């Protein structure tokens, strides 16, 4: 699952990957956990939302519930270099929390 600081990538559109590259270049310890999938019936666009900075104002309406319906939603856990054990421990906590909600990471995408 690719990681990015924005909604899932729309096929055919270019998105920057600097956020992911940064984690790799700095050799940070990272875990990426698939959590759920976007659901157009509950992940509605908030028409009252107003971004605070200029960069977000340009792209803030990029989210379209129809386009993103079914797209993966993930969580990235990041720690400093050589802290893989901490990341693994946090990922296990997230996995346990997901299991209490009736979801298992290992079953993601195999519905």
Describe the structure.
By secondary structure, the protein is α+β, with helices and mostly antiparallel strands. Helix content is 32%, strand content 15%. The protein has helices spanning 18-25, 54-59, 65-68, 84-100; strands spanning 29-37, 72-79. The protein has a two-stranded antiparallel ribbon with strand order 1-2. The chain starts with 17 loop residues before the first helix and ends in an 11-residue tail after the last helix.
Task: Decide which structural class fits the backbone.
Answer: alpha+beta
Shape: globular
How would you state the average pLDDT, rounded? 76
What fraction, in percent, of the residue positions are helical? 25-40%
Strand content: 15-25%
DSSP strand tally: 2
The order of strands across the largest sheet is 1-2
Computed Rg: 16 Å
**Low-confidence regions:** 106-111
Largest sheet: 2 strands, antiparallel
Q: Span between N and C termini?
A: 17 Å
| H/E element sequence | HEHHEH
Our count of helices gives 4
Protein name: Amidase domain-containing protein
Organism: Lepraria finkii
Family: Belongs to the amidase family.
Question: Which SSEs are present, and which pair or pack?
Answer:
Elements: H1 18-25, E1 29-37, H2 54-59, H3 65-68, E2 72-79, H4 84-100
Antiparallel strand pairs: 1-2
InterPro entries: AS_sf
Family: Belongs to the amidase family.
Protein name: Amidase domain-containing protein
């Amino acid at each position: 699952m690719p990681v990015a600081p924005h909604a899932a990538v729309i096929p055919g559109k270019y998105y920057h990957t600097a956020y992911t590259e940064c984690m790799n270049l700095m050799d940070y310890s990272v875990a990426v956990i698939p959590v759920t999938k976007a659901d157009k019936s509950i992940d509605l666009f908030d028409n009252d939302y107003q971004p605070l900075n200029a960069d977000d104002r340009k792209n803030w309406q990029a989210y379209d519930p129809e386009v993103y319906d079914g797209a993966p939603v993930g969580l990235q856990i990041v720690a400093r270099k050589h802290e893989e054990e901490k990341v693994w421990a946090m990922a296990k906590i997230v996995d346990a929390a997901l299991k209490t909600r009736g979801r298992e990471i290992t079953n993601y995408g195999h519905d």
